[in-house]
Amino acid sequence: MTDTKTRVMDSAERLFAERGFAATSLRDITADAGVNLAAVNYHFGTKEALLSAVFDRRFGPINQERLELLDAAECRAEGAALDLEEILRFFLLPPFAKMQEWGDAGPNFIRLVGRAHSDTNEQTRASFLRPFEGIVSRYEVALRRALPNLDRAELRWRLHFVIGAMAHTMAWCQMMKTPGRRRGAPPEIVQEALVRFVSAGMRAPASDRGGETS
Amino acid sequence: MTDTKTRVMDSAERLFAERGFAATSLRDITADAGVNLAAVNYHFGTKEALLSAVFDRRFGPINQERLELLDAAECRAEGAALDLEEILRFFLLPPFAKMQEWGDAGPNFIRLVGRAHSDTNEQTRASFLRPFEGIVSRYEVALRRALPNLDRAELRWRLHFVIGAMAHTMAWCQMMKTPGRRRGAPPEIVQEALVRFVSAGMRAPASDRGGETS
DNA sequence: GTCTATATGCGGATAGAC
DNA sequence: GTCTATCCGCATATAGAC
Fold first, then answer.
1. d(CA B28, CA B48)
2. Is strand D within 7 Å of residue A43 (CB)?
3. Cys-Cys link to A170, which of A70, A114, B85, B131 (CB 3.0-4.6 A)?
4. d(CA A193, CA B207)
5. Residues within 8 A of B (CB atoms), A 152-181 only
């Protein structure tokens, strides 16, 4: 039996992902976790603080891996521009890699993050979107070096589309096959398909003025 | 002064898009609309029925246009396969075209739909996702004809990524410039960028086994 | 740290006058 | 069709015993 705090976070993670934050009551969570209602306020203070705790526990590690992979590769490259597909791989794959590391609890969090990407609430933005935007800026610089002929605004929009494809895949990650399920492709197949798709999208011929070719 | 029913739907549309369904109370809506609380139950019955009404009002026309554009083009082609980019244009552009037709109220609904794409609630699925899935199946057939060498499962996933890129762009459509705003690109620019991006993604070289080249 | 009990307010929905 | 007033349950959060 794991400890109360962890049990609450696990249940919250799953229920927030399935029903959304506002539609999930603390009673739903504590009933699911098999703990007392008052334990939530004792351990976390408020419902919003619980949401932040749920994000912080797993989103930090994902983003740290994103940064470390990029840093390490840039260090190895000694000033040369990185390969486009490599950069996209570093950006896209950590969520799915961690999902598999985390076992049964992984998909819950990944779904939650997938949905959070289209969330405009101020509470979600604070604990989720703000740190993510730092990552995006960092990758935007790397991508600009890999695609030096692509118009800056166009690159920003394409990065936006990359995030959309990734977020949607995360939100519906239950469509991927895990060892126990019948339907759906294994995560590795989907990940590779995603990388191929967005790599080609980033390299698309540009509009009439200002061209990127290869 | 427009009629009460319309005012309620307009406010609901905006607030559902901004805060989400569960986080928006009927009191928020009626206060924003400047109508009496009881009017909601008189005109719509329940809060869920109001949500359905909000979807039905605008999502039907969008999907009808998607179908009509595809039908008309297939009719003109007289049995020949359509061009990939043309198909994607028919699928992707109606939401944005309608958004601009609808003026100030347009972006609210488009954001709502963008968020709904990653919603797994049963209530949202019923009034939104089910009809959409019919459209997707129809387009999947057309795409398979345009990309006959692409593996079927791979095509499904790529269509999934297309939807993700589109949904994310819809959810953040306030980033596009409308006549009165300073920042952001005009919608036409973004739409074209999206079409170019996903067209290239769909045509990406396939994995080792089973290839699609041009 | 964990429980019971409860304060306090907001939620959707309705009754019934006009 | 529109209003006021209200029912009633559920929400978050807390007090205080153990």
1. 15
2. no
3. A114
4. 8
5. 153-154, 157-158, 160-169, 171-172
Which nucleotide shows the minimum CA-to-C1' distance to residue B50?
C12
Closest C-alpha to B145, from B160, B155, B136, B135: B155
Q: Which nucleotide is nearest to B41 (CA to C1')?
A: C13
Which of A20, A161, A166 comes nearest B197 by C-beta?
A: A161
Give the separation between CA B120 and CA A20, rounded to whole angstroms. Answer: 9
Using CB atoms and an 8 Å cut-off, which of residues 7-26 of chain A contact chain B? 17-23
Q: Please give, one letter per residue, the 3-state secondary structure of A47-90.
A: HHHHHHHHHHHHHHHHHHHHHHHHHHHHHHHCCCCCCHHHHHHH
- The tens digit of pLDDT for each residue in B94-134 reads 999 999 999 999 999 999 999 999 998 877 888 899 899 99
Calculate the CA dihedral of residues A15, A21, A24, A27 and round it to 10 degrees.
90
Distance between CA atoms of residues B33 and A10, nearest Å: 39
Q: Is B199 or B180 the better-scoring residue by pLDDT?
A: B199
